[in-house]
Amino acid sequence: MTAAAPIARRLRNALTIGLALQFCLLLAVRCCSAADEQTAASNFYLRDGDRVVFYGDSITEQARYTLPIETFVRTRCPGLKVSFINSGWSGDRAWGGEGGMLAERLQRDVIVHRPTVVTVMLGMNDGYYMNYEPQAVAAFKKSLEELVDALERELPGVRITLLGTSPYDNVTPGTPPDWEQGITDGYNSVVARFSAATQDVAERRGLLFVDMNEPLVQLLQQVQASHPALARELIPDRIHPGSAAGLVMAAQLLTAWQAPAASYSVKIDAADSAAGVYGAQQELPLPFPLDRDDPLTKVVVQASPELERLAGTVLRVTRLPHATAAMRLDGQELGIFSAEQFAAGVDVAALDMPLARRAADVAKLVELRNRVQFIRWRKLAATVATGPPPPANQLAEELAAIERELAALELAAARPAPHTIEIIATEP
Fold first, then answer.
1. 3-class secondary structure for 381-404?
2. Is 106 helix (H, G, I), strand (E, B) or coil?
3. For the chain, what are the domain ranges?
4. Is the dihedral of CA 313, 316, 317, 323 positive or negative?
5. What is the pTM of this model?
6. What are phi and psi of 227, to 5 degrees?
């Protein structure tokens, strides 16, 4: 064996078996790490200890945009202890509806929870599925003002976000229903006026306003142009957004709330590259779970910069002194990437890995807890508000206990755990 053999073997081992890297994982994620919670509190709209109530009609009740918001907080910001209540009621209008008049609805379905944050989205039903009537918009604004007055009076310091209602689909082709055929320019021309009225109230009262109408109209137009076979699935019945459209709505609200995107930066020190393979353990927040096998979801992520920013989990490796390298997480190889790809950022949320599967489990827990809350509220408390018999009271308390348990499971499942990241060089 020549004198150069040990050196050659060391170099070969360093390049083919593993690149000896000592690196430090620096989280650039706000509100996703306990050390950064104070900074996050000054940026993200939601704060530790917040209680959020989503108020609205069936578009809120179906939870297509509320579930992703709760799931985002659970996965990306597990250190924040925030509770969520969905108080949407099908057919509701600004003055009330089947769930009771406005005062009753607010007292039973909102104020009783003592929320610190309330979102309000109404307007789809306030146009009564008829041509535009100025009187209807005026009545809507009056009731919305009364709603805000009541919340601010009963809940001092409450933070209110008013949402412009999502659109009626007049973009994708199809024969309009009989009731709509006499409406000038389609029913969304009416709905959009209620969204504008909501914005007027928000601006006059100094409240945060988030438009859900125009962004979804643009999404409908974009998907109709690029993937017409999928576009109708965005709002299948033309009124209620589907799951993919709900993701965009959630992204709109989270962006307005300055929710953090997740990215990790890895700094490489290859000074001792021949000494062995070094890894780093770091607590990583879970990725935001998406069904990336669903064709419409893929299209929607590409079409919505807000959703793409929030859904990705970008890991950047800087100062990598090799052309390509493999990346492993907890011993599982995630892929081989060039130094340029590492520097630009690898979206690890799009890779099949245990973190993504855990995130999907958290999303399921969020859904289950919301089901329990809905049953306890709508099947028991709301229907027997005058005084339920003891068996109903007992059942309500049992369901409440299950809901608390599920909420605890959500937090436990979303809690970051140490993970080992290795960068293994494949080419010099």
1. HCCCCCCCCHHHHHHHHHHHHHHH
2. helix
3. 47-260
4. positive
5. 0.85
6. -140, 70
Cα dihedral 10, 15, 16, 17 sign: positive
Look at residue 267 in the predicted model and tell me its pLDDT: 59
The residue among 337, 258, 230, 228 whose CA lies nearest residue 72 is 258
- Per DSSP, the three-state class of 50 is coil
- Which architecture does CATH list for 47-260? 3-Layer(aba) Sandwich (3.40)
Distance CA 107, CA 102 (A): 9
DSSP secondary-structure letter at 2?
Answer: -
Residues of the chain with pLDDT under 70: 1-42, 263-282, 384-390, 427-428
Q: Report residue 123 as tokens.
A: 């307007």
Beta carbons of 57 and 295 less than 8 angstroms apart = no
Joined tokens for residue 43: 């940026």
d(C-alpha 56, C-alpha 286), whole Å = 30
Closest CA to 164 of 204, 202, 135: 202
Whole-angstrom Cα distance, residue 173 to residue 284? 45
Q: What span, in angstroms and rounded, lies between the C-alpha atoms of 342 and 320?
A: 8
Beta bridge partners of 11: none
For 117-147, write each residue's pLDDT tens digit.
999 999 999 999 999 999 999 999 999 999 9
Residues 6+ apart with CB under 8 A from 99: 89, 92, 105, 109, 382
CB of 10 closer than 8 Å to CB of 274: yes
- CA-nearest of 147, 239, 142 to 190 is 239
pLDDT reported for residue 382: 83
Tokens of 124: 């789809």
| Residue 211, strand partner residues | 164
